[in-house]
Amino acid sequence: MNQDYIKPDNWSIIEEGFDAERVKSSESLFSIGNGAMGQRANFEEKYSAETFQGSYIAGIYYPDKTKVGWWKNGYPKYFAKVLNAPNWIGIDIEINEENLDLNTCTEVRNFRRELNMKEGWYNRSFEATLKNGTEIAVNVRRFLSLDLDEAGIIKYEITPLNKDAKIVYKPYVDAGVTNEDANWDEKFWEPLEVKKGTNEAFVTAQTFKTHFKVTTFMHNTILANGENIHVSPSTIDSTTDKVQYTYGTIIAKGQTSAIQKIGGYTVSLNHENTLAGAEKVIKSAVNSGYDALLQNQIDAWAKIWEMSDITIDGDVKAQQGIRFNIFQLNQTYLGKDSRLNIGPKGFTGEKYGGSTYWDTEAYCIPFYMATKDQQVARNLLTYRFNQLDKAIENAKDNLGFKNGAALYPMVTMNGEECHNEWEITHEEIHRNGAIAFAIYNYYRYTGDYSYIPEKGLEVLIGIARFWHQRASFSKEKNQYVILGVTGPNEYENNINNNFYTNYIAKWCIDFASEQIAKVALEYPSDHKRILEKVTLSANEIQEWKKVADNMYFPTSKELGIYLQQDGFLDKDLVPVKDLDRSQRPINQKWSWDRVLRSPYIKQADVLQCFYFFEDHFSKEELERNFDFYESFTVHESSLSPCVHSIQAAVLDKMDMAYTFYLRTSRLDLDDYNKEVEEGCHITSMAGTWMSIVEGFGGMRVKNNQLHFSPKIPKEWKGYSFKINFRNQILKVDVNHNETTFTVDGDQDLTIIVNGNSEIASKFVQIN
Predict the structure, then answer these.
(1) Residue 263 lies in a domain
(2) Spatial distance between the Cα atoms of 727 and 745, rounded to a whole number of angstroms
């Protein structure tokens, strides 16, 4: 834990007291989004101290030219950047002819932020004394509408406390923005058109290179004591990329003045005419009115929470942590559009480019399968199917592979690889396995096999071809090996025979072969269509199987463990507990050379394999490998603690499971890795959900049935969650005395609890 200023609360993220040192961290933590767009919790008014400005639009990116010290053949030409979108929230404010700026006020008191996760809004309030002696109270509420997802709403209220005040509001829309994270300090937006109306304004701009067109808009209403006073702007200032209106008002001491601002984006992904689309959005929002829009927001979030909430009784910090994770996941992706995916920072920052990683398949899909309609998860799988041609092109052009072998990118926006670190781009090939596993996981959980003959089998064939060609035969070992890779543990680069990579390569080939046979038997027309399209023969499949059946896995018979890679035991094996705390996190304290030579593990490698393929190993094997590798794991990846929490629960190491759960659930709230100001770790938040449902709840799917082995941390009185399993909603309530299973509807559901078959109807109790 590196910060502890967020107040414990079951449903809200709360900060009290103004501290300039916390501003950038809070901008991340109080971020809001609605699946189509999002923004950091920047102040609407001018703020002259350090801040990280950021608004983002789903699917809009820029191909920032790769910047490396030494170019190598095969490097991607660009690194995709989620763009800092034009600013619509800005409202410069003058009070008695002085700018409102919290950095220059003589006093700021009663400062409070609240992110209300239950209802989906962000509120900021404070009292301030300006240099001119005017004292004011301010309350600002902002939300991004889930129903009208191209619009956001701000209500900014000012009450003078010690004298009458002349208040000047200067709302604006501005496309002259830049990214914090840019390789060449290029400008990403080209202004096209400015349009001004009575109380509304539009700036249309497009991205250079990718030519996404975006109209950023605003509509302003000035209120006094809650009533529209029908003020028109006194001045209108505009440039090629910015429009700013000025509204002057006078308000008596103790009375409340306000500006209500509607703003947002319409994009060419969804509109042929973005300006006309923006005018339509404004009309709809104005006709609804602020109160109705807010109520619709509350109702929409209530519907989300009805299915996705996890309750924890007796541990407020744990409860706050899981709800924060679930809230951010739903703010980032709602599954409406198969062109979109889940960036590691979502709408909270620019790090990692806002692109798609293997995190989606390995960690996020289980959450979306269980808490939403299965079509949402199917859309995420379809996203990869739609990019299969690019994955084949990537393997062919960058690696010299042939015959339709597919290497999915480590980082992508449109299917093209756009990660510019060699050891990640070309060595961290295990991501192919996660994509294949997600297809299996989707079918296992939903029972919907139709995706495989319709789309998935082509993906599996491309991936199997890749592994067949990527493996090489070792005469010394008389087995197939995979050389020069990086596993999920990125603290080892260019190593040979990473256990997880080798294992999932074998599994991918076996699974693809099995599905080819199944589709041939059950979907012969699809089988014929696919094999003709990809030119696949029985002889080629036999060649794949030679690799899979004779794959090498590094092991230590002496320790009874699988080796993370061939040379792991050659390292100076000093456990983490003996590492000076002043050296942590090592990725911020050590040279990269020292990190690579150390035994320290960023995240699970061998244990990731045990998580995916739990039924392939005995509990004794898991315990030996867990005890060995956990002692060297520094958990400097956000994806690490959740896997360890789940496996600690399997091994009845409940204190450890609880500790890892707290770390994953409060990773950002408590800033464990000293980096939250860059944005929140959105994709790992799905792992927090897994820590409870799969870890403490012990939920698994085996032989088309749900299995549970419920456990509960001693710190909790009880917990509950819901899952949508094959269109049946099951609620699980666990306390120290019993577990209760309740099914919505009249259809019974057979479940296996601690190895015993039970019929869950309206409810079944397990003591």
Answers:
(1) yes
(2) 11
